[in-house]
Amino acid sequence: MSRGARPALGIDFGTSNSAVSFIGTDGMARLIPLEDIATAMPTAVFFNSEDHSTHFGREAVALYLAGVEGRLMRSLKSLLGSSLLDEETSIGAGMLSFRAIIARFLGELRGRAGRHLDHEPRRAVIGRPVHFVDDDADRDGRAQAALLEAAMTAGFDEVSFELEPIAAAFDYERRVPRESLVLVVDIGGGTSDFTVVRLGPERMKRPDRAADILATAGIHIGGTDYDQKLNLEQVMPLLGFRHAGPSGREVPSPTFLDLSSWHLIHWMYTPRMLRQARELRSNYAEVGLHDRLLTVLERRLGHLLASEVEQAKIQSSVQDQTTVIDLSLVEAGLQATLGADEMARHLSPLLQQVVQCAAECVARAGLRPAGIDAIYLTGGSSSLRLFRKTLRHHFTSTAIVEGDLFGGVALGLAYVGQRA
User: Fold this and answer.
1) Is residue 73 domain-shared with residue 164, that is, in the same domain?
2) Domain span holding position 40
3) Does residue 147 share a domain with residue 60?
4) Total domains, the chain
5) pTM of the predicted model as reported, rounded to 2 decimal places
6) What is the DSSP secondary-structure string of 274-300?
7) What is the Cβ-side half-sphere exposure of residue 2, based on CA atoms within 13 angstroms?
8) Cα separation of 233 and 243, whole Å?
């Protein structure tokens, strides 16, 4: 860092939520309030068609749910590494690429951070998953390059990257009393990432920590995948998913797969997709199910359904009881339910894959589960009760420590920037 240069912002650009941090005058990282006092902001953009304004975070989601005419964009990070990144989407009277929308969101984070800090941030360390794209190094590289370009477009002059679980480890290290071998578990909206790292008060002082990182691993499964699975299994059958038509064949499934995926829902409202959905009517033996599907698409209720499922997942996990998913906007009195049995049946295969990835990370480090001193949890989806139960089944005796689920990565990124 050149003399007089300010420390870099730490930016956790998440699939579901984002956070920004900075280094205070005392050398400690702090999260920046992005929405009033809230330090985690939903990664959401709403283009208001009524007055042509643009809104972000909770305000974006609230305007959409209130019925304001416009386009809601969520899970933007999921588009990195996808062929959809350079596609353009309609936002009112104009068209905008998803690459440009990501740049606009990063620019908003930069602007809010600048107002809080009373200076214009120019440097940033941005977190990235272990794999943007599983098993495809070329696409993974293009995803990071696209994120770099978006950050530069947003106004940053100097941008570097750090793996999100490694950043979380450097935040946790401030609270480790003695040298420890730690498995950092970062379960976000789009990916699950792991690192085995050697942490401790003395090691924290070293400028080069490469030798302390024993292994990393990641899998492209996260909270939005859990939401999609629950949506498909508990809600989409009420619209015709797996419904057998007059010929005995099921209604084609792609419509329901896209309608339950946060980052693809907006595509379902295009004239072409609406036309295709209307043409499905002959595939239905119960046309009332088709009427519900058309109601969701024509009234643009897909994001609302996804939000109801997400909230039911959270509530069911926290309260450990059956939760009602309100679908009355689709049809009066219509509802679905979600309880512990359904959560376990639908999510266990995904969670087993995630925990197996954690186990592989430990094995790559040359360790057995019992050789890990602590498991440090970060990322909002790590709070899922069923996930923790699955993790505990594999790591039977290791201490599990909960960090700042929505801010730990961002805080660690600021520490990474402090060393640069």
Assistant:
1) yes
2) 9-178+404-419
3) yes
4) 2
5) 0.91
6) HHHHHGGGGG-SSHHHHHHHHHHHHTT
7) 4
8) 12
Task: Evaluate whether residue 209 is within a structural domain.
Answer: no
327-357 pLDDT, tens digit per residue, is: 999 999 999 999 999 999 999 999 999 999 9
Q: Is residue 329 included in any domain, yes or no?
A: yes
Q: Which two tokens stand for residue 320?
A: 């450990």
Which of 58-67, 105-114, 130-139, 287-296 is least confident? 130-139
Both tokens of 162, joined, read: 């750090």
Do the bridges between strand 323-326 and strand 335-338 make them parallel or antiparallel, or are there none, so unpaired? antiparallel
- CA 387 – CA 187 distance, rounded (Å): 10
Regarding whether 326 and 236 lie in a shared domain, the answer is yes
Q: Is the pLDDT of residue 294 over 80?
A: yes
Determine the Cα angle at 336 with ends 289 and 235, to 5°.
50
The bridge status of strand 399-402 relative to strand 374-378 is parallel
Residues 13, 143: one domain? Answer: yes
Q: Considering only CA atoms, which of 72, 77, 85 is closest in space to residue 302?
A: 72
169: CATH = 3.30.420.40
pLDDT at position 5 over 70: no
The residue among 338, 360, 384 that closes a domain is 338
Longest dimension (CA), the chain: 74
Q: Among 338, 366, 384, identify where a domain stops.
A: 338
Which alpha helices (H) appear in 121-193, and where do they start and end?
Answer: 137-153, 164-172
Can you name the residues that pair with 193 across neighbouring β-strands?
A: 186, 218
62-93: pLDDT as tens digits: 999 888 999 899 989 988 988 888 888 777 66
